[in-house]
Amino acid sequence: MKRYEVIIVGAGPSGLSAAIEAAKRGVKVIVFDENEKPGGQLFKQIHKFFGSKEHHAKVRGFRIGDELLEEAAKLGVEVVLNATVVGLYSDKEVVVKIDESIHHYKGDTVIIATGAAENMVTFPGWTLPGVIGAGAAQTMMNLHGIQPGKKILMLGSGNVGLVVSFQLIQAGCEVVAIVDAAPRVGGYGVHAAKVARTGVPFYLSHTIKEVSGEDCVTGVTINEVDEHFTPIPGSEKTFDVDTVCLAVGLSPMSQLLKMAGCEMEDNPKRGGQVPIVDEYGQCSVDGIFAVGDVSGIEEASSAMIEGKMAGVCVSEYLGYIDEAEKKEELAKFDKDLSSLRQGMFAPENRGKVIEKTEEGIDISKNLLRNGFVADDEIERFPGVVHKVGVHPVIECTQNIPCNPCQDACSKGCISIGNNITCLPFVKDDSQCINCGMCVANCSGQAIFLVDEDLGDGSATVTLPYEFTPLPEVGTKGFGLSRSGEKICEAEVVSIKSVKAFDHTNLLTMKVPKEYAMKARFFKCS
After folding, report:
1. Which of 86, 228, 365, 453, by CA, is between 20 and 30 Å from 515?
2. Over residues 424-442, mean pLDDT
3. pTM of the predicted model, to two decimals?
């Protein structure tokens, strides 16, 4: 039986982060993962992360995965793939199935970073080919380059449902609707807004009644539900689709921890059956830690910090650092984690209806109900300003932990304020140089560069554009509103694609000046 100082189960963001922190201090680490590629969910994530630059903000998930793997390899971390851990015992014995053989390992410490599994819901037709999880759709698109379907309905308006819907559109699929039984959008407003302006309708307080088809999905019927989630007779709506995508939450994969005798609890706010852990992830069984989604569903950025904390803790547990160094390191990570757990979407706010921002501004009810901020609501947010010449318009309307726009502007035009969750604003005395870095760096694609009056009755709007084929200069089409409605004629007058934008193209369209503050997407004729 081979012995390791640290055995880590799961080579995702939290597991790799834990391995790196321990290996930095000289600890001998081995990581097991059942997949053929390490990195967990990161290599499905083609969008840019939120947070600050210390938390990989504005970096696409798959690039973060590459960085973690490279660092782990340099530190000598051993990663074993296609290795399924089938057993974990209280004496920290780990049983692993590799190929067709069973292997036994003994760890002085064990870190479980197995992540979470997609939830499913049942309805007539749910077993038909074409009903898939959102994570499966991401795998098909972003790892294998395969469209999950042509016409797709998404069930679930949390961040997963919103992000995957946008990626489906990027892959050339038509998303016919986003449906959710809840009465309000569950994910970040900026994610909802970028989907809505492409023309995807939201059906809140709706759920799937049935999926039709003999051998595969050919259609789906939804109906409205009342405040008790009871279907309302006569409210049915039917869509012709070939795919139904489910984004209805995640459940921690905590079975190994339960097998090891760790004390567990059923905690809906953390995602279901989770281990009872201390503030640094140690379970009730001495020397066993749980990090990432297995201990509570959160964002990948938080999972990475939790992994780092566990890496520091096992280093002290094994005698590689002293208590003072441990406390010093953990204090830094505590601060980082605290900043990511602030704002409207903080863990303690789950399930609550937030009516005002931290600044005392009324939350957009239209955003929560329909996925976009209405024209009569948008002007009340501090990033939406009017100036002569080109200037940024920041349509960030919720308190989420993110600030790359502030760091992106070399002229200091944009400020977040003292708290990473504050709404960004444009400084009064600033002078925009139209470089576009703020547009390209905004993880929520919520910043536009606007020249409200060119002097000839027209205006220009520069927006982030991540679709193919890329329109050419001179292409005529339509400006779409925040709801995705065609509101004016538009012409592409500039396309900027530079390495610093990291595949976010900047499309500038010319529109009638009365639509400068309303046109937010371009569609070819």
Report:
1. 365
2. 93
3. 0.94
